[in-house]
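Suppose you are handed only these lines of text.
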Amino acid sequence: MAITRNGCEGCAEITCASSKQVLAQDIAKNVRTAYDRMQSRGMSACLFGSGGTCCRNCNMGPCQIIDGVDEMLGICGANADTVAARNFARVVAAGSAAHTDHAREMVRGFIDTAKGEGPHCIKDVEKLKSLAAVFDITTEGREVNEIALELGEKALAEFGKQDSTPLSMLKRAVPKRQALWNKLGIAPRGIDREVVEMMHRTHMGVDQEYENIMLQASRCALSDGWGASMLSTELTDIMFGTPVPRRAIVDLGVLRADQVNITVHGHEPLLAEALCIAAQEPDMIELARKQGAKGINLAGVCCTGNEILMRRGIPVAAGFIQQEIALATGAVEAMVVDVQCIMPSVTEVAKNFHTDIITTNYRAKMEGAIHLQFEEHAALESAKSILTHAIKNFKKRRDFFIPQETKLDVVVGFSHETINYMLGGRFRASYRPLNDNIINGRIRGVGAIVGCDNFKLTDDAHEIIARELIKNNVLVLATGCAATSLGRAGLLTPEAARYCGDTLAEICETVGMPPVLHMGSCVDNSRILIAATEMVRQGGLGDDISDLPAIGTAPLWMSEKAVAIGQYFVASGAQVVFQSLPTTGAKKFNKYLQEGLMGQVGAHWNVASEPLEIARLMIEKIEAKRDALGINKKKERVLFDMAMRRDLTAGVPGVGCHGPSGA
Ligand code: NFS
Ligand code: SF4
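From them, the structure of the protein bound to FE(4)-NI(1)-S(5) cluster can be written out as follows.
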């Protein structure tokens, strides 16, 4: 059957050169991807589903509601606003649950590490101590592992906390925001509790007022952003090292012709880190040699890829929309997966080749895959048995195709701490220079491009938005598959300064930093909350996140996690722009999300359908915040003298890529 992969109606075009090259090969002719399925489904999306007014919450339905038509209420009498709000809130709950379950595993792994069990150790003692302070843990005169154990146990208790005091991490927010959350009654109490309450309140016949439903949706999302995701990011950093800038490569071309290629796909970095350690063990390398390979090449896919890219410089082969295409190269011995964002189709694609899909987590099994449970208590042994299986596949490899010319250099590792050092220097690490540059207008503001890839817009949407932002002197922060896609676009290098407006270019060139800073995986969006909070604390840009000239977008959102992230940004005071929201079938509720929330939390959702429109809306919102702050007066252009250059680059490890990046 001939497969046309481009230009199907309602389906985005593949513009990515390496993806196109792979799919054009003879070996890939029987591979069906999501692009093909979009084309062959031959039906448009259900209007009720896309508008958010299809309800399946009880067995009197399912009910399809038409807003304003009395005959088309739910059998129970539910109207479009109630139904759309409940559906939206359940999406937030599901997204939060995914981050929460991931975070819990990281905390459990952290406790094992503190007890000296497993292959990991406490790498970032400074960060351990600063987080211990948030939990009121004494650090003076105590052993590192003892502090870590107390921290791990207190962190774990946040998940099942039953009293009504706020989560400990909320103390990190600026006072005005904390006060607002308390006033609205949306300061999360227990991480698991908020998801459970959200599910309860959206059960048939409970919460029916969309504003009230959204209060709990905010509390639930905040328990993700400031609770689960932030705990996960921080404890992962303490265990595996806080990212510092390093050079790496991304795209399908990172696969190696003469090595065993193992793609690591999913989210929880415990598995990926163990695989990285095991792949360096002499017995594993020897086994690979015996099979005729020159070595073992681990390559990331999706957010696990971002985790090991940030901390170890392990290459990323693919983002979400390329996961099938990575397998279509025929060069992958095994795709090792854990949880989240793994397309069910990968087992079918793998059948065309010698590739095995190896599931490793009891929570996520797939028909057609091999299950090798990853045991955290025997992490190294588990990782070795997974690797052994993959290595033995090498001999079975037949024809393959790896696009070579598209391998792209990136500089990654911009944790909040890195940005602090990079701009402020080691001896006076701070966000002061960033704030000053925003106040003097050389940087107009900050735009975060986060979240997934999907097939609804052109696959270079992230790139189009980022280029427009940096051209207008907006500094871009990126995470998740958006960051991978911006890496493929060549925007994660200091050399990309040439695409910036004059003033941002000057700053990037002076510091030696890319205009798009890769801050990590999707759980690492919590780094953006901390960075924004630091900007407020530095002064000069208002007294809450809602005053900052900053805005986020997840233009190609696909997963429920992206909506949870959007909601915790909004509830933290940051505007977000999405390409669409599943709420258009409910007029009042839709308006409430896109306007009404402003009166409550100081930010709201925005929708713009095309990449350039999204970028322009972001710039418009940034300029409006600048106007409100009174910093939009024209200033004379200041040229950098030597002293300013020295100040900006002092003590920046690896920035500008002329130094080792350290671990
Ligand atoms: Ni985020 Fe990561 Fe990618 Fe989207 Fe999926 S991998 S957690 S959800 S698709 S960015
Ligand atoms: Fe229909 Fe109401 Fe049941 Fe939903 S809860 S399926 S609207 S009867």
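What can we learn from it? The pocket of FE(4)-NI(1)-S(5) cluster (ligand 1) is lined by residues 267, 302-303, 320, 341, 451-452, 480-481, 522, 558-559, 561-562 (CB under 6 Å). The mean pLDDT is 92.
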